[in-house]
Structure formats: structure tokens, C-alpha cells
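Late entry, NAP complex.
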Amino acid sequence: MMMRACFYERTGPAADVLRLGEVEKPEAGDGEVLVRVMVSGLNPTDVKRRGGVRGEMPFSRIIPHFDGAGTVVAVGAGVPAFRIGERVWIWEGQLRRPCGTAAEFVAVPASRALKLPDDISFETGASIGVPAMTAARALRLGGPLEGETVFVTGGAGMVGNAAIRLAKHAGARVITTVSSPEKATLAETAGADTVVNYKTEDVAEAVLSATGGAGVRHMVDVDLAAHLPEAWRYLKPNASIASYGTQSGTEPRFPFGKYMYKNIAIFGVAVFDIPEDEKPVLAETVEAALKAGRLDLPVDRIVPLPETAAAHEHQESGRALGKILIRID
Ligand SMILES: NC(=O)c1ccc[n+]([C@@H]2O[C@H](COP(=O)([O-])OP(=O)(O)OC[C@H]3O[C@@H](n4cnc5c(N)ncnc54)[C@H](OP(=O)(O)O)[C@@H]3O)[C@@H](O)[C@H]2O)c1
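Prediction complete; structure with ligand written out below:
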């Protein structure tokens, strides 16, 4: 049996390497479910891998995209048959395997296809895997956050936006940064209490002013090299930073003494390498927020499968205001 899929057999620019074609339909292996994909979710990691940033291709042909949503149509050995017909959200769909969600069908470990509440759309389900799991880990590293103030940089980005939503769901107060009025709206809609335009305002002054001079307990960060020189000013003693990116530079320079004497911890976050025994805990946190209707990330656009290359280019442009999703008709 064959299926339609988008795939690449060498890395390079999206328009050069992404192809649409018929490939063999996967089967559910032991412990796996086969999902009819309805929506595939795009993340920066998908375009970086396709572009060759992550090095050699680990497989001769790759169907990209880690995130997605759809309906279980078959189960492998060891998976209960009642799962057939279940609406699911997929996370880590292409982790260490060649076939992701940019296809009519994908086979994934049963634990990577979790029940989507009836009132939550496939679009939302396909949006949350990488962003919400990253945000959940970054927040958990800050310890119990109820009643605390969390600072989320880049609150209009998808990880940042998920972090605002999860932090609010956990009972925290959230301060965030954006670079434009349009992005401020995305952050406000997510529930941020204070939104700072980091292009036009002094971030340290704004965070201190929003906290009555006390500073914040935890920071979820998109760009460590950009923020380390100043962050000690607005972090409380014994505070923490969990950073999942450092696009301004891979070797940040910062005044270590300022951090050391305030007992501030700096954590790195790499979503695919979170300890395996912690992943289900984080997935439960994500599910709880999903059920509560708190994780409907903004959508920039939904395009059909043949337009996947254009979707990758839009992701690379940095102009997206929300998730870029692929509809699999
Ligand atoms: N380590 C991990 O496990 C992990 C997991 C997920 C994502 N990531 C990486 O994290 C980055 C963001 O992912 P995403 O899905 O959230 O991407 P996204 O939706 O494209 O959002 C990125 C956001 O970061 C903002 N930003 C960039 N530099 C900033 C700065 N110095 N201060 C404040 N905001 C800043 C951007 O807005 P402006 O440019 O307008 O400010 C944009 O809103 C990507 O590089 C991705 O590969 C890493």
C-alpha cells in the first residue's frame, strides 16, 4: 500500500529538496499506533534539519515534522485495540526515525500519540508537541511556580507562548518580551500580565518596575547570549534561568560573579533529550493545560501538503505570527 507524503533525500533549500510523492504506507510495529494524520505541525527544528544545520542525514529518505494530530487507525502488538478511532496529538513523531507527520499516515510509539480531548481541534493538537514540551520542561526547572513571577523572553514565539500559557495555568504571574505591537497581542492573548517591547524599552528596568523592584523567581529564555549580560539585575536571589536557545551567539559572555553571589542557576533545555522518565510527567502537564483549553497556540497559516516547501520558507523567514501547519487532505 502506498500513501502521499512530503520527503527529502538530501539536505538543502526547501524548494530544491522537498518533494511530494507516493511512498510506502507504514505499519504499526510492536508497541506502536498507526495514525491517519490530519494536521502536521512545523517547528524550527524541522527546517534546520532539512537545511543541513544538524549535519548528515541519519536516513536516506526523511519525511519531516515531529508534531501532528490525527486519528488512530491501527495498533501494533501490545497496544489495546480500543485505541483505534482515538483522536490523538503526536509528539516526537520523527525522533530517531525516518518518517514524520508530513504524510497521510505515521507510525509512532503508542506513548507518543496521546488522546486529544473531544473539544480540542486537530490544529491545536498539531501545534503543541515541541513547543509545549520544551516550555513544560523549562518551567519545571524553576520548581513550584504558583504565586511566583516568571519572566518569559520571546512571548510571541511558539515555545514562549506555550510557556506563558503553562505558567498561567500553574498559577504564576508572567512578564514577557516581544518586538512589535502584533506580537504583543499574541502574548496578551496567551495571558501575559506584563508585556515589554524589548526593542523600545529597557527590559531590566521594566521587569524590576513590574515586580516592585523585587525581580523574578524564574526565567524561560529563547536567547541566552542576548540576555545573560543583564539578567542578573532582574533575577531574585536563588532564582533560575532555563534557556532553550542562544541564537545571538553560542559562547555567551556574562558576569559570572553577579550570578554566583545571587545563587542563580542556569539550566539548558534540549527537548528531545529530556530524561525519559520525566517526559510522561511533562506530557501530563501539557495534557492538563490542553484539557483546560489553555494551549490553543496562535495559528499563522494552514497550507495543504503540496505547499510544504513554501511553509518551510515562511518558517525560515522569521515573519510567522503563530504556528505554521500543514493540512493533510
Ligand atoms: N533547545 C530545545 O529543545 C528547543 C526546543 C524548541 C525550540 N528551540 C529553538 O528555540 C528557538 C525558538 O523556537 P520557537 O518554536 O519558539 O520559534 P518561533 O515561533 O519562531 O519564535 C521565536 C521567537 O523568539 C523571539 N526572539 C528571538 N530573539 C529574541 C530575543 N533576543 N529576545 C526576545 N525574543 C526573541 C522572536 O521574536 P522577534 O525576533 O520578533 O523578537 C520569536 O517570536 C528556535 O531557534 C528553535 O530551534 C529549541
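The first strand starts at residue 2 and ends at 7. Will revisit in the morning.
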